[in-house]
């Protein structure tokens, strides 16, 4: 009798992990099929690679014509390799900063405009699954864009001057930047009710933050040039300037590369802190932590706004 009971008792199914839950997410499957089969993704990928290729071609022609690149100088070839690699990464950061919000700014609002949002909320699909499905779709396409630029980046390895550390750090910066801007677009899409309002708000927030950062950076540099004899003022200005650098993806990438070249260090520097000899972390470290934490907060807020009852 005990053996029959044990045989009839169903075994508990194992809890699926994160990758299994994402793979079984119906929103992710539907969005991936739609974005990969549409012409928009094809033309966007083509334009993305074309812009990178054109920029690197102009940079390569400039070096070869104006400086006699044909003279096989190893040191000069390394400089060209670093310039090619740095140019590709900076252009990728700029393009991803504008492409990522475009992929998510209408993710939730489009469901409301097509009157399918309430239908989705009546199903067994949770708000968290809906948000992660939309976000993962955008991140998957952004990763495809990053991988498509690897053949162009490989030109730098042929010329020399670029190591594995630079490749890993640049990849991390690109992924965190894509995650943050995608989460920002998803936040406004869940907060607002129209795609146009969500898109305008997302890009307005990006532009205003860059303008405010540039103005604050200009003021900090100007004030630091005046108060050079006061150690307290110098300390405040140095830390403020470093915080501004660490909160901008372009500045964080450039300064991290400078520290890696001049100080041969991935983790910290003391060369930019003046006479105080203050150790400062390399900008890519606080940038990664800050943007990742901000992205998590934006994702949680998006889940909250999707879960709230619809306003009539």
What does this 3D model show about the protein?
- The protein has 312 residues and is mainly alpha-helical.
- It has one domain.
- The protein is built from 14 helices and 2 strands, in the order H-H-H-H-H-H-H-H-H-H-H-H-H-E-E-H.
- A two-stranded antiparallel ribbon has the order 1-2.
- The longest helix is centred in the last third of the chain and has 32 residues.
- It is globular, with a radius of gyration of 24 Å.
- The N terminus is likely disordered.
Note the main attributes of this structure.
312 residues, mainly alpha, disordered N terminus
Topology diagram in text:
Blueprint (H helix, E strand, L loop, with lengths): L1 H7 L9 H6 L2 H12 L1 H28 L7 H31 L4 H5 L3 H6 L4 H22 L1 H10 L4 H28 L3 H32 L4 H16 L2 H14 L5 E2 L10 E2 L2 H24 L5
Antiparallel strand pairs: 1-2
Helix pairs in contact: 3-8, 4-5, 5-8, 5-9, 5-10, 5-13, 8-10, 8-14, 10-11, 10-13, 10-14, 11-12
Side-by-side strand order of the widest sheet: 1-2
The radius of gyration over CA amounts to 24 Å
**H/E element string?**
HHHHHHHHHHHHHEEH
Low-confidence segments, given as residue ranges, are: 1-8
Q: Give the overall silhouette.
A: globular
- Report the major sheet: 2 strands, antiparallel
Oligomer: single chain
Note the gap between the termini: 60 Å
Count of distinct structural domains:
1
Structural class: mainly alpha
Average pLDDT metric: 77
Please count the helical segments: 14
How much of the sequence lies in strands comes to: under 5%
Query: Could you give the count of β-strands?
Result: 2
What percentage of residues falls in helices of 4 or more residues?
over 70%
